[in-house]
Amino acid sequence: MAAAALCVLVTGGAGYIGSHTVLQLLLHGYKTVVIDNLDNSSEVAITRVSQLAGDHAHNLAFHKMDIRDKHALEQLFASTKFDAVIHFAGLKAVGESVHKPLMYYNNNIIGTITLLEVMAAYECKKLVFSSSATVYGWPKEVPCTEEFPLSAANPYGRTKLMIEDICRDMYASDFNWKFILLRYFNPIGAHPSGQIGEDPRGIPNNLMPFIQQVAVGRQPALQVFGTDYSTKDGTGVRDYIHVVDLAEGHTAALKKLSDPKIGCEVYNLGTGKGTSVLEIVTAFEKASGKNIPLVKTGRRPGDAEIVYASTAKAERELNWKAKYGIEEMCRDQWNWAIKNPYGYQTKETR
Q: Exposure winner among 83, 92, 173, 185, fewest CB in 10 A?
């Protein structure tokens, strides 16, 4: 008789990375329960994940819920036995976090504490946490390894670092906990079907969604911040990773949680390669056949020059490696853009 499928709770599962991960979990045979307050995401994403999952769709459940709502969380844990939690839920715009720090601390920190309290009460002590390369601050050298000193340059980054510290402290207090903290670099791209992708509210904070909006005529030009860095073409260099590769990194982390030797471990998820802003623009122009007008301007305060990951630890211990290059990332991003020029809305309703 086959073993019963493991049941995973995914917080923030209607978001960009969350929805792609939920699809991979379903395709790998997991029962998946998604909670999301839909603050910066759309229930349409869950509907489409269900369609893409085909025969596995019956293993998907969705509840509109805020992780700070302890009573609702307790009811969910009382009705469903979860084997593990993947925790994406949180606010993620760096600029907004500087202007609204309390909103970020309330949502990200209090939300996580509430989640951990309920997990502890229901003896569910396995968590994969969506952390970020922002915890490296402005690294003095590259590639970034997991042992680098940690510092955060803004409230958003500080919430990620604080949550990592909370996880480390929880493990130190009770060795029954198992935590995997995944530090992502720069996720871009979309599912190859073009049915799910990134759909930021308002003006995008990240490079690729902004380029996409220029290509479909929603923004007039791309602002390039800083053209005098000591890089190959003067623009900042980052480690871009295809969101499907990132999603597979989560299924690898989930498998790793069953390793008895895991306590609280950290893994970088990136490609280990740096790509400049202008290289991304060129690749996207090639994939889309569109010209992206540029407005070159000064450096943004707080932007690092070159950041990319060392991925050796994830490759070795999670048996995971990014498969896709910049061409595929741009191709899939454009496919999503053509099919969904206004994201999950049918027209500009924002």
A: 173
Are the C-beta atoms of residues 292 and 261 closer than 8 Å to each other?
no
- The two beta strands, 222-225 and 7-11, are unpaired
Q: Who's near 289: CB < 8 A, 6+ residues apart? A: none
pLDDT cut 70: percent of the chain above it: 98
Which of the residues are catalytic?
156
Cβ neighbours of 227 (radius 10 Å): 17
Q: How far apart are CA 138 and CA 115, in angstroms?
A: 30
Cβ pair 194, 142 in contact under 8 A:
no
- CA gap 51, 328 in Å, rounded: 23
Number of H helices, E strands in the chain: 12, 13
What is the full DSSP assignment across 80-124? S--SEEEE--S---HHHHHH-HHHHIIIIIIHHHHHHHHHHHTT-
pLDDT in tens, 81-90: 999 999 999 9
CA distances from 167 to 12, 120, 130, 162, 343 (A): 18, 12, 12, 9, 34
How close are the terminal C-alpha atoms of the chain, in Å?
51
Q: What is the pTM of this model?
A: 0.97
Per-residue tokens: 46:
């869950």
Across 211-258, where does the E strand assignment appear? 222-225, 237-238, 240-242
In DSSP notation, 120-162 reads HHTT--EEEEEEEGGGG-S-SSSSBPTTS----SSHHHHHHHH
Between CA 68 and CA 109 the distance in angstroms is: 10
**Span 240-295, pLDDT tens digits:** 999 999 999 999 999 999 999 999 999 999 999 999 999 999 999 999 999 999 99
* 266 CA to centre of own chain: 15
**Cα(60)–Cα(75) distance, rounded to whole angstroms?**
18
For residue 62, pLDDT beyond 70: yes
Partnered with residue 64 across adjacent β-strands are 36
Cβ density class 133-157: b for 16+ within 10 Å, e for less: bbbbbebeebbbbbebebebbbbbb
85 forms beta bridges with 9, 127
